[in-house]
Write a structure and sequence with these properties.
Blueprint (H helix, E strand, L loop, with lengths): L7 E4 L18 H12 L8 E2 L6 H4 L5 H9 L9 H4 L15 H21 L4 E4 L20 H12 L4 E5 L6 H6 L6 E8 L23 E6 L5 H19 L3 E5 L17 H18 L4 E4 L10 H12 L13 H11 L20 H15 L1 H4 L14
Helix pairs in contact: 1-10, 1-11, 5-6, 8-9, 8-12, 9-10
Amino acid sequence: MANILSNNIFIYSSEFKNYKFSNDHPFDPLRIKLTYELLKSDNCLTTKEIVPPVMATEDDLLLAHRKDYVDFVKKQGPDGNQSPCREANQYGLCTDDTPIFPNMHISSSYVAGSTLLGAKHVLNGTDRHALNLSGGLHHATSGKASGFCVYNDINVAISYIRKHTSYKVLYIDTDAHHGDGVQYQFYDDPAVCTFSIHETGRYLFPGTGSVRERGSGNGYGFCFNLPLDAFTEDDSFKYVLENALYIVADYFKPDIIISQHGADGHFQDHMSHLSLTIESYQFIPKLIHKLSHEYCSGRWVATGGGGYNVFDVVPRVWALIWKEMQNLDFPDLSTPLPVSYLDYIAQTFNHEQFGYWGDDKKNYIHIPRRDEIYDKNKKSLIDSMYAINKGTIGNDFFSNRKL
């Protein structure tokens, strides 16, 4: 890709550490700080590129959430234990997945406000790309928390774009879990196209995201789901993702891309059954970046998402998003991680970090069914594109495009 002069923002501050359910909850904001430390150690992130987060206002939150829900979240006080669980359960809170935590409204508002801030920078032309790794809380709905997500920052940002511009928004979700909260928020809106590639809901929360979920009313044909078989590996993942996104982007012709970058499909992440390596996570931002310039004049807002191997996976995966935004050469996977970063991890957390950008594959096991899985995913790709091809596309249509 040619070097493109542009300004990009990395939204970050220590405030993000406060979106924390408990010390033993798998959703750990430490992964954001570790990504920041990795990028700083690798000399990829400067002070001028860092923008502090801002809180979403109530009016901002009401773009995507019901007032009674926002009011209830606000009532949960500094001790994180304001309301009885019977009442909180009506709003999806006080559950094992999404317990009430101290200052929940404030911390959640910073997440939502930061994705919205990134969108405003991109819309105003102040910056071409924006990255908010605290965001990507794609399961929350208008009136309910779900799956570690209190406020849906993506829905807030997209709703703002829809209210203030005529832009068509392409939402791309590569988390291992289906982006249900975003899909259903815009299910009948033809100006928002949602695309989610995820492990099939037969085995994994939230159980939605089949190829037959295609939108409703005027929004029919603008919702795309590509459910993957368990144990999907890199070759199959990259093949179906690339073909699907080129077809969807050419069909929809977006003006701006919002993307969610969950890292939980990695083979070292215990929260899904996918078998991806860092090679897929190099491929994802490279493809989305290319599409943003081909269709959207570079307008691209990226967020974090899932990812529960806090030390060994998420920082490398998320650092690659920023490297791509900056048009920096991706590291060869045999390149060592910065010594200063490895020392920081060892001394601060007493953690022995694998020392390379690539994966330690000594425990990686190829599944004997990999050819069968590849074929099943290719069929899902064809089925997922039904609203575009009306069943006319066959196996011979697709070719593995080279970037």
